[in-house]
Amino acid sequence: MKTAILDITDRIRERSAASRGAYLARVRRLAARQRGSDRLGCANVAHAFAALPGSDKLRIVAERAPNLGVVTAYNDMLSAHQPYESYPGLLRDEARRHGATLQVAGGVPAMCDGVTQGTPGMELSLFSRDTIAMGTAIALSHDVFDGALLLGICDKIVPGLLIGALHFGHLPCVFVPAGPMSSGLSNTEKSHVREQYAQGQVGREALLQAESSAYHGPGTCTFYGTANSNQMLLEAMGLHVPGAAFIHPHDGLREDLTREAVRSALALVERRQLIGEQVDERVIVNAMVALLATGGSTNHLIHWVAVARAAGIHIDWSDFAELSAVVPLLARVYPNGSADVNQFQAAGGPGFVLRELLDAGCLHPDVAAVAEGGIGAYTQVPVRDEGKLTWRALPPSPIDPAVVRTHTAPFSATGGLKLLTGNLGRSVIKVSAVPADRHVIEAPARVFDSQEALMAAFKAGELERDLVAVVRFQGPHANGMPELHKLTPPLAVLQGKGFKVALVTDGRMSGASGKVPAAIHVTPEALAGGPLARVRDGDLIRLDAGAGTLEVLIDDATWAAREPATIDPAQAEDNAHGLGRDLFGGMRRNVTSAEEGACTWL
After folding, report:
1. Which residues are annotated as a binding site for [4Fe-4S] cluster?
2. Residue 269 Cα to chain centre, angstroms
3. What is the rounded distance in angstroms from the CA atom of residue 258 to the CA atom of residue 179?
4. pTM above 0.90, yes or no
5. With 70 as the cut, is the pLDDT of residue 512 above it?
6. Binding site: residue ranges?
7. Pairing relationship of beta strands 501-505 and 467-471 according to DSSP bridges
8. What is d(CA 151, CA 106) in angstroms, rounded to the nearest whole number?
């Protein structure tokens, strides 16, 4: 393995020694107990299995057969989760075929960021992750399960399920995806129509037609945003059945992989492989490497910090930055290229990337995984051969070198994400999607306290110049740190006109955003007295992705003497009420910073 990656892993291990040790002690103490049906009181057991057929009760209580719990994020609002409707019956049938039982332990909420972008509902999005983690805990708190299957795909859902599962680290766990939708209108063309609409060149009817042609059926959206980055990371962590990520929901192979998830979970129960032990420092680093090698979603610089904390492991953005310096960029999938995830899968997908990362010495090979073959099993692709599920090796050369590359001929020698530091705080930028001539932007600031204010200024023609748009009071404490994806079309229009444009914000951008340079997740946030609160219109700001800096070019004395702005009371009041936001006041007050994972449970 690369020495730098081993060194970073050792540093994480040393930093986390006390918390990881305490976590593992709790996990092993719980794992040492009797099975649930033997340990619980008779009334507890009767309640737990009251609705099961008599044959299943006999299996659990008398035959002591494994009982798997399912936590599902099914709803038919999310196209990605709609296929889960039929999964409980399928999973239950497969468990019974192997003499085991299976119960749906509970459901968790799953919101679609695509629906809530630019609306007050988006202010619940980040906090939904921890709500899902708590929902997972409630489902598994019945404490009668020998293992768990976790059904979820999209942005906050997978991190939430994983955080919840790690708080039940004494259980073997398998994640069960459902696959992406078929390709529709290309992501590039969709973005072009959005930019036309932003300029008034087409109307709402044309925009809706384009959007509906892009998002048109069951399955995950086909760009490489947070949802599909989730799937890549779960493959790299060995938490899926190998190659399960990007098979279409209605492909016959999907049912084979779903049934295999049950068989895998039962095998994990048999060999007592606990998710809390499986997800160690090396597995967390493997996930970080996979994210960087594919130019994945910036949201995971928040989510995977929280995931690691759930396992007693402490990582930060400096770890990501140092890994990025030695991890090659091996994939170009929209917004980092023109291909969608179906083309990525056809070109070799996660299996090709993971094989190349292993060969390059960028992944820890000696880790436990759902597959008995360890992480090496995830370098192949699933196929159906004579009616049976099997796996085959990928060709040594790229099937489509415009989409995936070998580690000896990467798209870039370094990863797709970068840490920025300076007198404006710490932030991150997704460089893999930004044209090289936009990696350095120096321009006067135009300051906004909301995304609506920026949109209004754009529509009024006030932004037709070089500028750094500062959008502040968008952090976790202020309003739940919404994604500001609605700002991408107007800023892209300005960039397309030849202006030098960048965004600086303590909010988030969509995992699908990219070509406009954006310094996001600025920490400390403005509401917590962070430096963005001191920026004024006209201040010269320099964003240098190459040097890894984000600075306001003002002399130190003037900067130090400047009083920070405060959030408008009416805006603060609006952020606190309406459309359920009242219920999340405790989370806004208690949430940690973005770099600390925006956790509400620490």
Report:
1. 154, 221
2. 27
3. 11
4. yes
5. no
6. 154, 221
7. parallel
8. 11
